[in-house]
Design a protein that fits this description.
mainly alpha; 17 helices; globular; cell inner membrane; HcaT-like
Length: about 400
């Protein structure tokens, strides 16, 4: 579908658009790069057992699958999506201070639930702003988004060393300070106004001319992405605890997480050179296969005596099982979803990611409690289901992309 021309205001590119969006992504991912690997260690240090940790991690995911699509759709209707982003970052920073309170199970769960409502929409709204720049000004998405991965990498590595020299009690402090930095960057976010409206056709014309977000291709693809992503739940929830249990130090744990992100950044840097001519469906099939190989390999590393070097090797697959999923999803949305629907599309994708991640995270607690590292084997059939859905998406792929 051809979209109407941009208005004179929408044609004006904000100064240093790419630089400002890169700063948004960089500061956005510092707090995430601390929370994901080290928050479970903080919970364990506070005396919570594996099933409680799984509930604290999973319950917010179930909540955010409802709230995130609502907030991202609200951002699409706001005067400027950047204003919504700033308000959400400010609220997140304030709520994160709740972790400084006495860490009872009820308190930590309540803070985590409140926090997820305002924290989770950061990334899809930032992605939506970046994709508007891609559509309007020809900006390079991966060139901007890679700084999020780089900052995530730095947070992984630096967080490990900070915890090594202090203790896991520093985790809430690092999260609070990094959110403050994200707020400062958010105030500098480029203002783009409202998203470009769809072509002023009748409702019947739109139904026939514009691809709906509920078409089979979009639904199968986003479902497949969500399930492949969910196969990482066991890794995110319990791999730091597992590594610590076999005697790996906090600083090395940080480096292991960081190495995975190094591989992710490399994929962002070289994706266009390697996969520019590869269809987005094939990209996702490669990502799903990479996930399966990763979950097969993980439980074998320590028993086979491959040690820490083996874990570094398997973490390299982060470039395939995570980075290619992230890029593939944005590529699919950029090719098939009109600009005014990108926020809603991001929200639907996050709904599926969040719901399936929550379900698998909740199951990961009992899995780790009973099977330890062998719980990774349960992630293999999950990734296979995601692959099957991507295969179904391939059968209903649109013939022509949405034109700018």
């Amino acid at each position: 579908m051809s979209l109407p021309p941009l208005s004179p205001e929408q044609l004006v590119k904000p100064r240093h658009f790419e630089l400002r969006m890169s700063l948004i992504f960089a500061t956005l991912f510092v707090s995430l790069g601390t929370h994901l690997p080290y928050f479970p260690l903080w919970l364990e240090a506070k005396g919570f057992h594996a099933e409680q940790i799984a509930i604290i991690l999973a319950a917010p995911m179930f909540l955010r699958v409802v709230t995130t699509p609502l907030l991202t759709a609200l951002a699409d209707r706001a005067k400027d999506r950047a204003d919504v982003y700033v308000a959400l970052v400010a609220a997140t920073m304030v709520l994160s201070a709740g972790y400084f309170l006495k860490p009872t199970y009820a308190m930590v769960l309540a803070v985590s639930l409140a926090l997820t409502v305002v924290w989770t929409p950061h990334s899809p709204i930032a992605d939506s702003l970046a994709l508007s720049g891609v559509r309007r000004f020809g900006s390079n998405y991966t060139a901007m988004r890679k700084w999020g991965s780089i900052s995530y990498l730095c947070a992984n590595a630096a967080g490990g060393f900070i915890l090594y020299w202090t203790s896991v009690q520093a985790v809430p402090v690092i999260i609070f300070v990094s959110l403050a930095a994200a707020l400062v960057a958010g105030l500098l976010a480029p203002r783009l106004g409202r998203p470009r409206r769809a072509s002023p056709l009748s409702a019947t014309d739109i139904q026939h001319s514009a691809p709906s977000l509920l078409n089979p291709y979009f639904l199968y693809f986003t479902l497949g992405v969500g399930i492949i992503t969910a196969s990482h739940a066991f890794l995110y929830g319990f791999v730091s605890i597992y590594w610590k249990s076999i005697g790996i130090s906090g600083s090395v744990i940080g480096l292991l997480w960081a190495w995975g992100v190094v591989a992710e950044v490399c994929m962002f840097l070289f994706f266009n050179r390697i996969f520019a001519s590869v269809s987005v469906v094939k990209v996702m099939l490669i990502a799903g296969i990479g996930s399966i190989v990763r979950w097969i390999a993980f439980p074998l590393i320590w028993p086979l005596g491959l040690g820490v070097i083996g874990f570094f090797g398997v973490q390299t697959l982060h470039s395939v099982s995570v980075a290619m999923v992230l890029i593939g999803l944005q590529k699919m949305i950029g090719e098939t979803v009109s600009e005014e629907r990108t926020g809603a599309a991001q929200g639907i994708a996050y709904f599926f990611n969040g719901f399936f991640m929550a379900a698998v995270t909740l199951a990961s607690g009992p899995l780790y409690e009973r099977y330890g590292v062998d719980g990774f084997l349960a992630m293999i059939p999950i990734a296979f289901i995601g692959l099957a859905l991507i295969g179904l998406a391939a059968r209903s792929a649109p013939q022509h992309p949405v034109r700018r």
